[in-house]
Amino acid sequence: ESRPGDYDCPAVEERRPAADFHVGFTYTPYESVVSKMKKACSEAYFSSPFVEPNPQDLDAILKRVTDLCREPEKKFIYAYWNEPDGTMHKTGTVSQETHEVVTSLEKRIEEFAETLSDTLLFVIADHGHMDSKNLCILDYPEIVKCLVRLPSIEPRALNLFIKDEYKEEFPELFEKTFGDKFWLVPKEEVIERKLFGPGMEHPKFRDKLGDFLAIAVSDTSLFNTHVEAKLMPGGHAGLSKEELEIPLIAIEKE
Questions:
Q1: Is 227:10 a contact under the CB 8 Å cutoff?
Q2: 115 and 202 in one domain?
Q3: Which end of the chain is more exposed for a tag (fewer CB within 10 A), N or C?
Q4: Across-strand partners of 214?
């Protein structure tokens, strides 16, 4: 017997783009760290698949860094590669595939560092990762009926827009359903606690928060479809130690 969400969503890899432009940068533009560094009278560059010249693999990313380092002026370079995050999402944090990716990355970065001189190299992650038990919100019709639309942001940090007629009863209903799995934070408390950081607030930030933010405090993730839940055994954006702690490795080459 099929369930809602089993066949209404193609595999993540097969989805068509929402637009022929970068939706995030277009509707929620922000000033990047590279732009800020340039304004501070410093040469600064990206080496990332998402920014021109768009190097598409680790070798291309590191080659661009190497080429930039050969230029005489002092500079800041922000390099980004989406592994091991991508593999962990698909196979989990302790899979053989993840082990091979992490081992390969460590070896490659160690080799790369040996080629540098007069450089301070930081290796850091933008978040941690954990194996999660995935649920689908469509299996909870009493919750779904309260929503203006399905949530977004992350399966472990969901923005919930509540219909006016359910706003009073929703917190109690959510607590009964997911109280041991998610911390339900009212919009006002999210803002007061600065849960998204202490920086300058984006003009559209509050519009995107929803009425509540549901943040995972367990190993449970809540997806919008069964297909997505099956495809993503690894996740992040919750409050576990595994997600909050990140490495900071500094390598100084004289």
A1: yes
A2: no
A3: N
A4: 158, 184
C-alpha span between 239 and 217 (Å, rounded): 5
Which residue carries 């007061």 as its tokens?
192
Distance (Å, whole) CA 113 – CA 164: 56
CA distance 33 to 185: 29
The model carries a pTM of 0.85
The secondary structure of the chain in percent helix, strand, coil, rounded to multiples of 5, reads 35, 20, 40
Strand partners, 215: 157, 183
What contacts 29, CB < 8 A, 6 or more positions away?
Answer: none
CATH of the domain at 201: 3.30.1360.180
Task: Tell which residue, 91, 176, 68, 84, has the closest CA to residue 126.
Answer: 84
Q: What percent of the chain has pLDDT over 90?
A: 80
Same domain, 17 and 101: yes
Partner residues linked to 186 by β-bridges = 212
Reported as a single tens digit per residue, the pLDDT across 191-230 is: 999 999 998 888 889 999 999 999 999 999 999 999 999 9
What's the structural domain count of the chain?
A: 2
**240 by DSSP, 3-state: which?**
coil
